[in-house]
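Q: I have three molecules that I believe assemble together. Could you output structure tokens for the complex as a whole instead of separate predictions?
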Amino acid sequence: MPELPEVETVCRGLAPLFEGQRFARVTLRRRDLRIPFPKGLAARVQGRRIEKVYRRAKYIVVALDGGDSLIAHLGMSGRMTIVARPRPFEAHDHVIFAMEDGTEVRFNDPRRFGLLTIAPTDALDGHALFRHLGPDPLDPVFTPEWLSAQLKGRKTTIKAALLDQRLVVGVGNIYACESLYRAGISPKRKAGTVAGARAEKLVPAIQQVLREAIAAGGSSLRDHVQPSGELGYFQHAWSVYGREGEPCRCGSKKAAVKRIVQGGRSTFFCPVCQT
DNA sequence: CTTTCGTCCTGACTGC
DNA sequence: TGCAGTCAGGACGAAA
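A: Yes, here they are, computed for all three components at once.
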């Protein structure tokens, strides 16, 4: 799925189409994704003008006139595709946003771990989905000091901690691996021991990794299509993710990327340069 | 309180 | 070619 850079890329792709336009028609082709669509969702959205599209954590927020905001999450397999000319639906096209100019945006999600809901714009921060979220890693408040304070005393691994959205949002399995590699920190290390000097390296590592991925247009594995609607999604060159057994770029002859399972999820790292 | 684990769901891939 | 088993970018709630 989409982690922070992919969601950011989707938002940036949707914004020029959405902002200033009205939703002519919204079609829900099933009654739920991960959670049920709220009653009357389509009616609340149709005819509304879109004021702004932006990202909060891994959520896409679409602020509408009239005081409501749409909230979408892509889960593991969600995609937003821009369809300029009418064409048949594809499998798992669950929600269709038809614009006044005839363009459609289709929310497709095979695994249906995604989410679409609506809430009053002035109450978003206190919304159940947002309330517990930590700072955005690209926000100035995300500092080594802040991270250190959060990690202090934590017994879980630093890899697991980075996936905890209360600590910092937007970092998923791939970027957690890549950030730890960049910082030279072992994913098996106890989170508490990263507070201090290691956090000074980790915070900029996270920010660099994410910024580079955003600059690359958002990266993808197999099923994330660019919001432009074009097929041209590309492979990102990871340093460790998905590279089990390959020599590490650190250059040590003994350094091969290793895969372990932490909390039921794959972790890739170099046992030589990450300590 | 913190931490781990199972679960939601489909599709792609691997190996027999 | 078929089929069973495994794994996948997330996040929630239950259990320990």
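A: One point stands out. The longest strand of chain A covers residues 50-56.
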